Amino acid sequence: GEFFWNLLFMQHLLLDSSDNQGMRRHYIFAVQTDIHTPDLTQLILKSWDTGAGQYRLQRLREILTMHEEGFNPREKSLFALRDEAFGTWAKDVSLGNSASWAPTQAVRVGTGGGIGGGTLGGAFGGGGAGGSASIGFDDFAQTFPLCFNAAVPTLRRIFHMGDRDLEDMRANMPGGVVFCISDPEEKECPLIFVSKGFEEMTGFKEDYAVGKNCRFLQPPLEDTNKAVNGEELRRLRHFCDVAGGRHHNEAIVSLLLNERKTGERFFNLLHMQHLDVDGKRYIMGVQSILQVPIPSMLRVARNLTPVEEAQHSHFLQQLGELMGKVRPLVDTKGLADMDSAVQLAVEHLRSFFANACPDYEGDHWVPCLGLPEANTFHKDMLWHRAFEEMKSSLKKIWEVSQGCEEEVAIAIADPSGKDCPLVYVSAKFEQITGYSRDWAIGRNCRFLQPNVSWCNAAFNREEVKAMHSFCEDALPRGSRIVNLLVNEHKNRYPFINLLVMEHIEVPMPKGDPEPGTLYTRQTYRPFIFGVQTALDNQVFALVELLAMDREALKQLDRLRQILRKRGSTLRFQSLNTFARECIAEWLPGVPAFFSLPRVRLGVSTSWSRATVPAVGLEVNAQNILEAVPQAMEEGVRHFYLTFVPSDKNDESQNQLQMRLLSLRLTELLDMMVPGFYHYLRSNVSFTLVTPPAFVRAYEDVARALFLHSYLLDAWLLDLRQCPDRVDMRYFDYWRLMTGVRTAGGVGNIGVLGACRAVCEKLSGEGAGSIGVLGVELYPQRQWVDQREKNYYEQQASRGVMIVACGIFGPGNQFLYSDAVADEADRLQADPATLLMKWVEGQGYAMMVPRLRLHRPKAQLQQRKSFSRQVSVEPGSPTSPTSPTSPSAPGREANFHRSFAKEYSSLLPGAVDDFFRRCHTLHSSYDGGSRPSSPTSPACSSGRRPQPPTSPSAAGGPSPRRRSSMFGAPAVQLRSMDDGLVASRPRPQSASKFGASAVAGGPGFDAARVRSSMKLQQAASARGGGGVGSLAVNSSRNADLQSLALEFSLSVDADQSSGPRLPVERRIDQFVRKTSGMSECNRRAVGG
């Protein structure tokens, strides 16, 4: 069984046949001899399995090939050929390339007497007394302490070594620091000392390494070394040249690809420093091995096809370019802190390999190492024996009958193979995970864990440790473990995986009979049989566990505790029953803010998702990139995709808006992946709201959602601009929407803002029933036609989803109502939350333009914008996927759920009582001053919120007027045509709190003017005070300005606060004058 080197001579012979028929027979004559060469040759040949040895062996064969040309056995013996070839080879590899850092890696033994003495030095002509001795090894053993003491300050400052570490390094303890010392004053800068750690890490012993230049660590293949280390080698040669005037303590940090004696490659971050000891110059090198697994494309490539060779060359070129960019960064950092330099280099290399190599899946190294085990498993039909072994468990626990194994997600691993590879996966496994059988077989199953390492640690740290112990320990047959893991589909969307693994033993095929018997001994091979079940994502609280905030991780740990506590019952019930009972026990303890209320999606749908979140936020192309991420962080999971109103006849403008929304939506969905917002995809709902001119936007919007695996739950035809008119085109649009719903392109369809007659005509045309109805709804709304109200109530009782819009009142005036503000102060909530809770009490969904009037004080210090946060390069210090990002371990995730917590803290009943009581309370108002109320925590300044200063700021009313919708009037009148409630202001502070209005402003229209004037007449008849003030925005219309002057009203062009003049003319004249205005002016007044 011993190996030997064989020099083989072969020659073709043609010999005459013995039958004398003129035929010649062909033979091959061979002479072989083992090689008996001097000690040096034996030493070099014994290292043939190293990178440098491979080069030397290849060179020897080339020289033998050259010498065999013209070789005639009759003239020269085979032994003479051997001696000539070996002599040429020994001279070539020892002296020919010794003066350069060439990629051939030929190294010579140093000329010093002690370093290269004995047989080695004699063989190269320089050892013993014949060399120009500089310093022997024995002499350096006495110099080493001085050299080490000179390096101690650097080791403390850069490597952060303590006294214990330094003592171990000084004593050269095994398993210690990897370092070496070389002599730059000698030719070739040979090594004169290597540590025990150096020997253990590289595989090269001291007797081999000392006396040689350290380039034997470089890859032996010239193309690889040149592509990856080429420029850095020149820098190293220049640093080792003492003739360049290097001073004491001068240092560099170099990133290199090196190779161990076994041929295994590794990345080395090398710190080299010049040291002066008693006038003698030395170089100490300390190596930091980067924990970066080497991909298969970087290993020694053999027998490559032309295409594979081109891919390999391109990969090496890209790696060389990356290392060229990283080296200046690590050199700068490493001279101050090597730990930071190591971390930076690892991040860049891992990020590169994750995108360029098939051996990486995200941050996980999953090389295909188990193909031999997988081939044996299938060739010997071991999968059939494994199913026979698990037949009873499959039937009892997983409810699988024999022959239906492919309907369950099954994976079988071989713990005896390298890296515990998968040897079998079922078709259901492929469906759940998205990974094909061809790709998964032979790899460890950790590719299912979240691709980002810190994210995986946050979710699965303890579970992964338990799985490793289970797979590595030799546990008895039948040992079982239950794990709850957060895994990722191939498309990077997560799922919660309930995994059950069990140790089994499979009988192996019988071999030859045992000696002396007629029977063979039956052998068994251990395997791990695993079945996984993706928990139902319709349990929306489970999906919220993926938000990675502190509360989510706490609830995930609580669910795992329940699973472990009930794990013993699994042997008596099926896995699905076990999972349902565990979730049922876990759900009552989940906080209410984990999932906001949901409503049914409506009738006439077979959609996969039966409910949607009740609270939905309106977004458009202008604000979608900022509004959606911020709302998701606050706990909102429903978004209405709307369009900014424009001229219906401007086709080009409409087309631009439609295209812009789809592009912004695509950009948003792409940006949500690095920010981990996509983890909550199963809970996120989208509803498309299209006016008639924008119906064609569906195709682009649906395509963007589909490509990112999102659903379009509803599609609403927005008729708020023309609710009473029936256009024949509406029927065409409705038939189109019905066809899309029938084809499964949308969950349900409906109309928004249409009157009863239009809805009945649309659904009565046979084109399809209405599943969703959107209606303008707010407290104390008065219906013009009671039949409208009855119609909506009837549709709601039939299961139609009712969506309330405009819940903040016309012009968002309810947000600035004094009564609502007082109640919000009392409940320590936001006024917008009170109105949303009122809608929830009605059992309806809602579409709101904003979540609150104020941002909470905790959010005033906002983080960087979402778009900037996700646009940084991967692996950079501010990247969301880097360990220093805001979501890295040790930091709170972005999902703070502030709105969800505030919303769920209020009970709908208490809010309903307030809106029922508000009329009574206002009627009993005696005109006195308002009692003080506690300041709402939602207002950081301690003052009541003021309306926005422009119509673009949430559509609120003018800042000069506070809506007195619930402003405690003595008399209230309701306008039957628009449902608005006008009120009389306080007499004592009319200019500040009175019913001032800005004609032409966003919260004012002609109907409101009439209501206010009628209120003034009624109030005057009862002896009350007059209207506080009326103002006109003169920039809107000249007729309005003249009207204001006629009635002695204040003219305010910029809507800023100013003096108010009382009304001096009769109110009825003003009402008549206003009602006679042109349609253009009326539209201007109404905003």
What can be said about this structure in brief?
This protein has 36 helices and 29 strands. It has 1087 residues and is α/β, with parallel strands linked by helices.
Question: Could you please describe the fold and organization of this structure?
Answer:
It is a single chain. By secondary structure, the chain is α/β, with parallel strands linked by helices. Helix content is 39%, strand content 15%. The longest helix is centred in the first third of the chain and has 29 residues. It is elongated and about 120 Å long. 42% of the residues are buried.
Write the layout of secondary structure elements.
Blueprint: E1 6-16, E2 24-34, H1 39-46, H2 51-68, H3 78-96, H4 118-124, H5 137-159, H6 163-170, E3 179-182, E4 191-194, H7 196-202, H8 206-209, H9 222-239, E5 251-259, E6 265-277, E7 280-289, H10 306-334, H11 338-356, E8 360-361, E9 364-365, H12 371-379, H13 382-389, H14 391-396, E10 409-413, E11 422-425, H15 427-433, H16 437-440, H17 453-472, E12 480-488, E13 494-507, E14 524-534, H18 540-544, H19 550-565, H20 575-586, E15 598-600, E16 611-613, E17 615-619, H21 624-634, E18 638-641, H22 651-671, E19 685-690, H23 697-707, E20 712-718, H24 728-742, E21 748-752, H25 756-764, E22 772-776, H26 786-797, E23 801-805, H27 818-827, H28 831-842, E24 845-848, H29 866-869, H30 898-904, H31 908-923, E25 972-974, E26 981-983, H32 990-993, E27 998-999, H33 1006-1021, E28 1031-1032, H34 1038-1046, E29 1050-1051, H35 1067-1075, H36 1079-1086
Parallel strand pairs: 17-18, 17-24, 18-19, 19-20, 20-21, 21-22, 22-23, 23-24, 27-28, 28-29
Antiparallel strand pairs: 1-2, 3-4, 3-7, 5-6, 6-7, 8-9, 10-11, 10-14, 12-13, 13-14, 15-16, 25-26
Helix pairs in contact: 2-3, 9-10, 10-11, 19-20, 22-23, 28-31, 33-35
